[in-house]
Amino acid sequence: MAEQTVLSNTKISLSSASMSDPSALPLLHFFVAFLLLCILSFAFLKKRYSRLRLPPGPPGLPILGHLHKLSLDPHKSLQSLSRTYGPLLFLKFGSLPVIVVSSPEMAKNILQKQDQNFAWRSPFVVHRVLHKYPTIAGSQPDPAWRSIRQICATQLFAPTKLKSFQPIILEEIRSLLRSIDADGHQKSCVRSKLHAASINIISRMTLGNKLQMNESNSAANASAHLTNLLVESIELSGFFNLSDYVPWLAWMDLQGCERKSKALGGKLQKVWTEIIDERRQYRNIVCPEREDTDFLDILLSAFEIKDPPLEYEKIAPILYDIFAGGTDTSAITVEWALAELISHPSKMKRVQDEIDEVVGNSRLVEPEDVQNMPYFQAVIKETMRLHPLLPFLVPHMAKAECRVEDFDIPANALTLINVWAIGRDEKVWGSALDFSPERFLGSDIDVRGRHFELLPFGSGRRACPGMLLGIINVNLMLACLRQAFVFEPNERLDKTEKFGIVMALANPLLIRASPRVPIHLLLE
């Protein structure tokens, strides 16, 4: 009856408008078609899910589903809904079914017990258009994906390989310390310096050289453009694109995401192609007997021995993932840890005392030292609990319809693991909003995906492949910073979050630091 009334009223309006203004007729036709499509879509979805026992959730709206329930901080909005409806929540973002997981038990069910079914990715427009071939993070779990993951695990992120890169990591950390020391007693923006160190470590491990923005030689060195392009693409990937959730609007590209992705993807492809072609030419002509010294060499060798050989264009999205995954993550984690320590002077002093006891001031901290610093390790864990970089991890997708606990999960459901909410759940963590590293002393909980109350790197087959490198970088950057400097305390530091693909401080941390180690340690 309601639909008939709406259509009747629409016909009257259409007739009146067409008699008074014939030019309005096409627009009115579009409006009627849009309205009919809304009604049919709503009815179809309602019927489609009527046979399923879905997890609980709030009433939704036609077309929008539950998009109106999201604020600018969706991790907080979904935490609030989960408190009302439970740790397994069903929503619709437009026409896309969404499952929100907000407890360690439910996360274990998804990421361990049904890992294979939930290891898939939703085909978001930006990811699909930005890259000619899928990235590691965006690929579906097929044989090609498993092959690339294996190459990364054994040739780049293996413990023995990372140990060989240790001199590079320590050298870039010394550069980081010198850049802060050079500011004297002036305030330093630590994020930009951490960011530069992180991307230089990744670049030297992957391409054999630093990425420096040098306009004078940018035409001769394609990699000089890469930093800006990476930042733009990461920001675009984190943008909420309506086309992903209301697919029949995708052809209009209302927010311009597809257009921007095509333009940016073309620039990225050009830069990667120049870098890869230059290296292939060097390997084949200039120095054919050269050993594999960095990850690009390793990838080229691996692609050459495949039968049949893999297309070299597939190397570009692999390199993109390594850079994008390592550019912000370590830097932002260290910034959060410094912010917490600066606002808690007694905890800062305890870290300093532990470093002095284990290492002293005759050399800088090395990776092996960290295992003898339990309080420092607890600080890292507490930072990752309270400030997870990816509040929902990288979203998973249920490939097939399945059952979780007593509920049915539709096929192709976007699955969000709200690790931010899990980390602030009073049922899991006592005094959950307090920064308290002491909670991890004597605890066997770690960050490697085995304990589902703490999942900064995810778990299962889609866990972050660069987890070990991330842990090493964060440990060494933070420990060396604390060893080398005394930081001015600030108990009222602004720790407001800014939601994004990586959740950082809304206002970058400004620090005032005084050196506390001999200068020669920074120059070795």
UniProtKB/TrEMBL annotation:
It holds the Pfam family p450. One of its GO terms (molecular function) is heme binding. CDD domains: CYP71_clan. The keyword DNA-binding does not apply. One of its GO terms (biological process) is secondary metabolite biosynthetic process. Keywords: Heme, Iron, Membrane, Metal-binding, Monooxygenase, Oxidoreductase, Transmembrane, Transmembrane helix. Its cofactor is heme. The chain crosses the membrane at residues 24-45. Heme binds at residue 464. PANTHER family: CYTOCHROME P450 98A9, OS09G0441700 PROTEIN. Belongs to the cytochrome P450 family. This is Cytochrome P450.
